[in-house]
Structure formats: C-alpha cells, structure tokens
Amino acid sequence: MLQPTNAPAKWDLGAIPWDQLDTSLVRDREDLFYLVTAASFIEIAADLYSNNLALYFADDREIVEWLESSWQKEEVRHGTTLRNYAQRAWPHFDWDSAYSKFFADYSRKCIISAYEPTHVLEMVARCVVETGTATFYQSLAMQTNEPILKGIALAIRAEEINHYKHFYAYFKKLNVDCITNRWQIFGAVFRRVLEARKDDAECAMWHVFNNCESNGKQQDLRQFKLLYQQLSRQIKKEYPLAMAAKMLIKPLRLPLKLAQFIEGPVANCSTWILRH
Ligand SMILES: [Fe+2]
Ligand SMILES: [Fe+2]
User: pTM (2 decimals)?
Assistant: First the structure.
C-alpha cells in the first residue's frame, strides 16, 4: 500500500539520510530507474539555460538575484540529488558516461527554443514549466514505497511549487498595470504546454535507454518507443490533474467563481493533451 503523498519528510534535500535507503524496494523497478535517471539528466542540465534566463531579465535586479541565488542552485540540486539516488539504487548504470552523451545531444537540439516576446509572458511560461515539474514529482512520489525516494520527490515538489509562487509573484509585479490581457496570457500558457509535449523527457529517456548495457536493447528504437509510452501512461495514472489545472489558469486572474467553473474543463483538456 502506498504511503500518503503528503507525508512530510523529516529531512530536507541538504541532509538526506542515505543510510536509510532500502535498495531492495527499487532495485528491480525498471520504471523508477528510467524516471529518476532521466529527471536527473534534465535537472542538472538546467544550468544550460538558467544563465540565459537571468540575462533575459537583466534589467530587473530583484529577479536576477533570486534566479541566481535560489532558483538556479535549487534546480541543479534537484539534479544532483536524483543522480546520487540513481547511483546508489542502480549502481550497474554508468551515469557519468550516459550523461555526457545526453548533454552533447541535448545542448544541440533539446534546449528551450525561445523566450516569450515580453517579460510578463515569459513569467507566465515559467509558471507553466514549474506546474509541469511540481506535478511530475507529485506523480513520482505516488509510484514508490521506498521512503528516501518518496521523500526526495516530495521535497523537490515543494521547491517546484515555491518556484511557481515566485514566478507568479513576479508576473503580477510586472503586469501591475494589466497591459497584458487574458488572451495574450492564455496564448503563452497554451504555447508552453504544447512546447512541453515536444519533450525534453524523451531525449533524456533515450540516452538512459541507449546506455543501459543490461537491457540488451541498445539502438532498438521500436523497443524504446514502447517503453516510453508505457512510462508516460504510468505517470499519467497518478497525475494530479486538478492541481495542474488550478496552477495553469491562475495567471489568467479570473473571478473566483469563473475560475472554479473552468477548472474541470481545463483538467479534462489537460487529460486530452497528455493522451495525444
Ligand atoms: Fe527542478
Ligand atoms: Fe523549478
């Protein structure tokens, strides 16, 4: 029976009690191996584009300071924590070698292609990205009984939600005169949701698969596609749609009753997007 997802860890990401890691609960969980390792690749590679984001907002000292002193460091720590977990739980996998191949590929073709045309809309886009990560880690926490992995997933989820809150606060600050209207904001949300589907995750997962010597399926694209579909279905089964819908429509700043009214349809729409 899975533990409740809101069970708080008694430690934070800076003091993980690795001696309590029960590898017997995850050693044979190929699904978790792929999800955790691929997530570690993407989070560590955050360094690639986080400097560019700080440059994009260079004229706002407050935002740049938060990006550099908190956000960037926390994203990379998510990656190093997940890497440390993967190396302990699945020591047969050569993480360093696989990551260097992933990085060469990702830095060439998988990075975020462009920023939104205005600072306000880029803040909306960042809210969408943090919604995606917070909900992913919520779902990951539901996939396991292993207490250290569950604690890590919940701790990262909390930090991703905190990132969302910061980006949302900056969005409100920058859009104080409401020059950016709801249709423009809706457009930014929609574009970013579709962009997310192009999937950095698939790029990371491919490099985990392709460097996994024990599965004997290297270079077999058909096998990889099947595995990827299966893992996507698994994440979607526990995906917190209501939470995602609430976070996605918040920047629209709709009247409360209208926001509550459309949360359901937005959740249904998210389900459709996730399935196609
Ligand atoms: Fe993260
Ligand atoms: Fe984040």
Answer: 0.86
